[in-house]
Design a protein that fits this description.
Elements lengths: L3 E6 L4 H10 L5 E8 L8 H5 L11 H4 L4 E2 L3 H5 L4 E4 L5 H13 L4 E3 L15 H4 L6 H8 L6 E3 L8 H12 L1 E10 L18 E2 L5 H12 L2 E3 L2 E3 L5 E9 L5 E9 L5 H10 L3 H4 L10 E4 L7 H4 L2 H4 L2 E8 L5 E7 L3 H17 L5
Parallel strand pairs: 1-2, 1-4, 2-3, 4-5, 5-6, 7-11, 13-14
Antiparallel strand pairs: 7-12, 8-11, 9-10, 12-15, 14-15
Helix pairs in contact: 1-14
Bound molecules: NADP nicotinamide-adenine-dinucleotide phosphate.
The site of NADP nicotinamide-adenine-dinucleotide phosphate has 27 residues, from α1 and α14.
Length: 359
């Protein structure tokens, strides 16, 4: 694989810092540009981030002295890189315009933001689940009038545990309804306990927009390409409650599920154990070897113990048992800024590179 020059737009933020960390020693991707708001532009990356560095590993040496560029100077950034990762905290319509401007400057955009997730010709991809949605990219390029430029997005962090857990059960058993309660870490809001002290010893029963995303986005992931758009699936029916809990990283979900044809517990565990997708088949550098891990212990998975499984790219599942209202219930966990954000986007970029969309 050739080496790709990479820009991170929103590099000073929580997800941006993850991207910068993941680019250190990446076999295919070289961090070349960091960009953020005019507040940070012109400073070294080290000065711009300052005390906001929230990773448990030190800031990579190669990033420290990069001069932060103004993300709005699209042509200047695009001229220096092969593609960008985008994770910015701006208004939705501003993010949409920014991402489209990069794509139109012939710079592919791999985005963490929600702004384009429901643009009909923008693929939203979890590489193990719907890698074939990359087939929509030529139609998007046609609409944008580009040769190289396009936008691809990853889905919301809240669903990165339960959608992978349900996916291997869909074809044989037909998941028809699902209730999910999520217990989400504060890094999902771009915060630490230092910057959000109210969260110490606390639980807040509201995360703006999260429940709608948790219910709607799975249906796009399971959707089909029809002509020049992705048509979302009609089932299963989801209902979600999303809570913010006092954890630094890691989103847990408690899931209740019913099937058209009820499998046995052993059949479900076997599907989970044997599941893999395009990320594993293509041997992508960030792919977990075993995507879904089932724990037999009653008190696992635990956020603190298990979020970093397979470099934070695997999903942990446990406590599968019969339910009185639904067929089964279980819990599952994924790392929200790794598999759920920057790590998932890096895996998506690797998929796009392997399929030739970043050439
Ligand atoms: N945290 C998660 O787990 C998670 C998961 C999935 C998706 N996301 C999404 O990822 C995005 C970023 O989240 P985050 O948690 O990393 O936010 P964050 O920590 O608040 O960082 C925001 C970033 O956006 C930049 N920014 C703000 N205004 C800008 C402007 N006008 N022009 C250019 N850059 C601007 C900031 O630059 P300055 O430092 O210069 O202000 C900073 O780099 C959001 O859309 C979020 O919904 C986050």
């Amino acid at each position: 694989m050739k080496e790709f020059k990479v820009g991170v737009v929103g590099a000073t933020g929580m997800v941006g810092q993850r991207f910068v960390s993941l680019m250190e020693n990446h076999p295919w991707f070289k961090l070349t540009v960091v960009a953020a708001s005019p507040r940070s532009a012109g400073k070294t990356y080290e000065d711009a981030v300052g005390s906001r560095w929230a990773m448990s590993t030190p800031m990579p040496q190669q990033a420290k002295n990069l001069i932060v560029m103004d993300a709005a100077k699209v042509e200047e950034v695009a001229a220096l890189v092969d593609f960008i990762f985008c994770a910015v905290d701006m208004k939705k319509d501003e993010i949409k315009a920014l991402e489209e401007a990069y794509a139109k400057a012939e710079c592919p955009v791999v985005s963490n933001n929600s702004a384009n997730r429901f643009t009909e010709d923008v693929p939203m991809i979890v590489p193990e689940i719907n890698d074939t949605h990359t087939d929509i990219i030529p139609a998007q390029r046609k609409r944008l009038g580009t040769k190289r430029g396009f936008i691809a997005v990853k889905s919301n962090c809240s669903l990165q545990s339960y959608v992978p857990a349900l996916h291997p059960l869909m074809a044989d058993y037909g998941v028809n309804k699902c209730l999910v309660c999520t217990y989400q870490a504060i890094s999902g809001a771009g915060k630490t306990f230092e910057t959000w002290p109210e969260m110490v010893d606390n639980c807040i029963p509201y995360i703006g927009g999260e429940e709608e995303k948790s219910e709607k986005e799975p249906l796009k992931l399971w959707g089909k390409i029809e002509g020049d758009k992705i048509v979302p699936a009609k089932a299963p029916a989801f209902t979600a409650q999303c809570l913010r809990v006092a954890c630094s990283d890691g989103h847990m979900a408690a899931v209740f599920v019913s099937f058209d044809k009820k499998p046995t517990i052993e059949e479900i565990k076997e599907k989970w154990a044997n599941f893999s997708g395009a990320a594993q088949a293509l041997n992508l550098p960030s792919a977990p070897k075993q995507f879904l891990h089932y724990f037999e212990e009653d008190n696992r998975p635990q956020t603190k113990l298990d979020r970093n499984l397979e470099n934070g790219m695997a999903v942990s599942i446990g406590r599968l048992r019969e339910d009185t209202q639904y067929d089964y219930k279980f819990v599952c966990l994924s790392h929200n800024t790794l598999r759920g954000a920057a790590g998932g986007a890096v895996l998506l970029a690797e998929l796009l590179a392997a399929k030739g969309y970043l050439d």
